[in-house]
Amino acid sequence: MNQKSILIQLRSSIFFLLVIFALAPKTASSEEKQGEQIYQQCITCHGKQGQGNTDLKSPQLAGQHDWYLTRQLHNFKTGIRGNHQKDFFGQQMIPLAQVLSEHDTKLIARYLSSLESETNKPSQVDQKNGYRYYQAKCGACHGGRAEGNAAFNAPKIASQNIDYLMRQMTNFKNGVRGNHPSDKLGKQMAMMSKIVSDKELEDILNYVTQL
């Protein structure tokens, strides 16, 4: 799908989000239902169950920690993330995040965190090197099974789309992400990305995306 088609879908999503916020009842039955309702205008890119879409370069959101999702939406909304001219896909998220209130952001994040993440197709790649590199360089923050760690503000990366993770690590390494003065956590990742070789990164991602 080309960039023009993606932008058309983006404008459509923004319009429908605005309509939903205008028409939604002020007293919804439950937070989960509200979050699910708001999320419906995100499914074109992120999938009905938050599984992501590799064709649209969209990450899996299902099963991700709500605190991480809330922070990333805030970062998009305030321009902390997606501000670099080379971050085309990050730039798409900025106007979408800006139509969300703080409360709506929390509702979506809680809803997505309640969903079960989708496992990737089994890989024939040997996982031994990936396991070893991951535990040495990533596990202390992201958890022994890449499940994430709130104490270190580290997201879950297990079962994430490999192309998305590779793109984000490349963005960190090249200063496309983690460049904003207020993005302290992003700066940490930018530093870490520089001590992982291309081969190590490939092995690590082949490992964590199979968890």
- The CATH topology name of the largest domain reads Cytochrome Bc1 Complex, Chain D, domain 2
Count of strand segments? 0
Rounded radius of gyration (Å): 17 Å
Mind summarizing the main beta sheet?
Answer: none
**Helix fraction bin:** 55-70%
What gross morphology would you assign? globular
Tell me what portion of residues adopts beta-strand conformation. Answer: under 5%
CATH superfamily of the largest domain: Cytochrome c-like domain
Low confidence ranges: none
- The chain-level mean pLDDT equals 90
Instruction: Report how far the terminal alpha carbons are from each other.
Output: 29 Å
Features:
Cytochrome Bc1 Complex, Chain D, domain 2; 0% strand
Q: How would you explain this protein's 3D organization?
A:
This protein is mainly alpha-helical. The protein has 2 domains: 3-114, Cytochrome Bc1 Complex, Chain D, domain 2, CATH 1.10.760; 128-208, Cytochrome Bc1 Complex, Chain D, domain 2, CATH 1.10.760. Helix content is 56%, strand content 0%. The chain contains 11 helices and no strands. The chain has helices at residues 3-23, 31-39, 43-46, 66-78, 88-98, 102-114, 128-137, 139-142, 162-173, 184-193, 198-208. Helix 4 (66-78) runs antiparallel to helix 6 and helix 9 packs across helix 10. The two termini are 29 Å apart. 31% of the residues are buried.
